[in-house]
Amino acid sequence: MSTxxxxxxxxxxxxxxxxxxxxxxxxxxxxxxxxxxxSTSEKEKDLSESSIRxxxxxxxxxxxxxxxxxxxGEESEKEESAEDLSLGFLEEHLRPPYGxxxxxxxxxxxxxxxxxxxxxxPPNFSSLRLPTYDGTSDPTDHLSAFMLKMKxxxxxxxxxxxxxxVTFGSQCRTWYTSLPxxxxxxxxxxxxxxxxxxxxxxxxxxxxxxxxxxxxxEEETLTSFYDRWNTIACEVQGTHQA
Length: 242
Known about the structure:
Largest sheet: none
Distance between the termini: 38 Å
Oligomer: single chain
Radius of gyration: 33 Å
Helix content: 55-70%
Mean pLDDT: 71
Low-confidence stretches: 78-104
Order of helices and strands: HHHHHHHH
């Protein structure tokens, strides 16, 4: 399967999960509305019946205020009141916790598996000046620069997975937080997803023919031309600088 197809498959999978979550939230909202409507109807009915019972009990209290039957009736009313409180508790927990317009699960997802957090990142990690990636350059270059830094502290698989997202810019973070919860267990898997997502930013591979056709511009100095030629030579496959 090509990287483009893998990317499309991953995006479809994330979109499908988002639709499923949205459907579940709508179902919960409908259930809550039905419960509230039922509760309101039953409550009005109970209030009417309770009013009649209270009038009857008022007359009975005048005759026998300590009747056991009366105490049982009062306990029954307390139980009905407790059911109303339970409905309120359910409503509170189904309510989106992040403000109006937010979904119940509208929190930053952590695509890293829980097993990666069993160890702590080495303390000397903070001394590294890590490169950043904004999603507009070659992802291979960023990975190479990142690995050069992390090798200085002998980073483990878990360290690489946890530190790599620190280098992401806003565009890259948006992609990262959209990944399914706990999907990443290995750094190799992480880099495959990363490279696939930003494959369109890879530089076009140069061949020797590009180097052969490189000519000095009319107003270009010899030094400038040599620097440009040398830069291209470093990028051409099959050539090595001494």
